[in-house]
Each structure stands twice: as C-alpha cells, then as structure tokens.
Amino acid sequence: MSLHLRRIAAIAGTVALMGLGGTGTGTAQAQQQVELISGPFGTGSYVLSTALEQIVNGEDDGLSLTASETPGLTFNARSLIKDPGRQVNTIMSFTSGINYLAVEGLAPFPEALPSAKLIANYNLGAVWLATFDPDIKTLEDLKGKRVALGTPPQILWTIEPLAIIRDGWGMEGDLKIETIGTKEAAQALLNGTVDVAIIGGYANPETGQFLPSPQTVELQASGRTLYHISWGPDAVAKARDASGMPLISAKVPAGAVEGLETELDTFYDAIGWQAYPDLDEETAYKVTKAIIANVGKFSEYHALGKLMSPSALLYGWDAEDIHPGALRAYREAGLIK
C-alpha cells in the first residue's frame, strides 16, 4: 500500500473510531495551516500525532493541523533545518535526548543544530538492565558479562545507557557490550548468547502507570524469572553532569514488570512534540491548550495515550526550554509557575 493510501486509511479509521467527521468550523482559507511531522507509519508517534490532528481540527480556534508520516525523529529535525521557512508553522515528534545530540552536533547529526522547544510530552521512556541469572546482583557481578543494548543510533536504548555505564558506573571497559537492537537483545537473552539485556517501557510519573515495551513483554512471557539491575540515582546524576544529557531521574514502581519486587532507580527520556523557536507563538499556544483540554482522549487512539496526563505533558522540563506559546498555555492551566 502506498504511503498516501496508508495515510488515508489510518485517518479514516481514526475518524470512524472517534465518530468525528468534521474538521472544525470556518473555511480552509480562513484557517491557519499547521504541519505536524511525526514518525514511521504505525508507531506510537504516528498514531498519537494523528490523534492530535483530529483533536486540534475539532476545536474552533482557527487552526487546521495536518499530521504526516516521516522516516523517523532524526529526519524531522534535519528536514526543518534544511528548510527553515517551515519552522514558523511546523511541529515535530522529537525527544529530549535526540535534541541533545542535535545541539551538540553528535552522531547522527553532522553538525550542531539549534535547540528545539517543548510543546508537550506524550511519552516518558525508561530503560534498565535485566538478566535471568540470579547471581548477577551487583556492579561487581556485571564485570566481564555480555550485555546487549539497542542499536548505536538509539538514544534511549543505547546512547544514554552507555553514558551511565561510562560516566556513572565507570565500567566502560569492564563489560562486553553488544549493540544489536532491542528485539535482538531480548532474543539473545532468551537464547543465552548474552548474560544481560536492556529492557524498559513507558511511564506516567504522576500516576505510576507503566507500559512495558514489546521486547520486555516478550521476556516476561517466557515464564522465566527476570532479575533487574538498577542504574542507581548517583550514577544517573554523574552521567548527566559529565555528559550534559537530559537524563531525568526516575523510579519505576515495584510490580511494573515481572520480577520487579522493589522500586527501581532509572531515568526518563522525554518523548513528545517539539518545535523550533520560530514556530508562531499563538499557534504553539492554541495547540498546547487543545492538548491540555483533551489529554484524556489520547487513550482512545493508542495504549500509550493512557500514560498521558496534564502534569506529565511538561514533566522534566524547565520553563526556559518550553516554547513561549506552550508555556503560556501551561501557566493558564496552573501547571507551571
């Protein structure tokens, strides 16, 4: 199926599910056009962005928002920097971690880029290490062990964990790191070709709700006992200070995944909608206001939407890193001073 036909099918399905046939009042000519570039078809970023399109276009606020599929979140920043004229009316799916790489000019970005600003989080990703070996309990036990992470470009599943291993634990040369991919890491742990693998999922820090990632669910379904290895709050802080990465200290509640009997110290990477400072302030304000007012509706489109709540929309962000228009909406809602 072509991209165009897939997009029509996805939007039609969403409209049928929600019972929404219109796109708000006013004519297209009178509305301000807003572009929302999301992520690959079928991903959480794509589906939640399509949901935001329906929500914004159902508001009587003079905006017409169009969400579109893209190859990925790194592509989003590159495309807006290549065509800066689009920045005035374009929002993108992005993460705080990828923004860090862009600002620092680190791979996969060939040169430093301006910093994007928050519109709203829709996910907070958390990862840590796990094993089937009950004898691996301490950092000393990890020495010499085979540890599987995601692929090198993945910020949450590879780059940020490597920063903690290097700068937080000081164990860069003590582990046999394999960067093979998230699904592959889980399979390698199941097959016994590695001793430890990266697992995790997505959280709402306000409610404590946690949704395990697909490969984490696969490991839980094996029927074998998982043993979880905390990064430790001090290690997260050390890595944040040494690298400058936006690692948000976090705790995953006991019982969030199989075998997790006590609260686990980890970190969040904020995943959401961001924009460059040139985005029209009134546009940012109206879109953010619509997100706040309708935050409960996102759960009707995707399971990850169940993790969205008013306070989670800006969790982990300082006021100076939020787009001015979005900041105005959050202040009006009493979510930030």
Query: Can you tell me the CATH class of the largest domain?
Result: Alpha Beta
* Shape assignment: globular
What is the fold-level CATH name, i.e. the topology of the largest domain? D-Maltodextrin-Binding Protein, domain 2
The number of distinct β-strands equals 11
The structure class reads: alpha/beta
Helical content stands at: 25-40%
Give the H and E element order.
HEHEHEHEHEHEHEEHEHEEHH
Name the CATH superfamily classification of the largest domain.
Periplasmic binding protein-like II
Q: Treating each run of at least 4 consecutive H or I residues as one helix, how many helices?
A: 11
Span from first to last CA?
48 Å
Proportion of beta-strand residues: 15-25%
CATH architecture field of the largest domain: 3-Layer(aba) Sandwich
Largest pleated sheet = 11 strands, mixed
Query: Could you list the spans in which at least 5 consecutive residues all have pLDDT below 50?
Result: 1-28
* Total tally of structural domains: 2
Radius of gyration: 20 Å
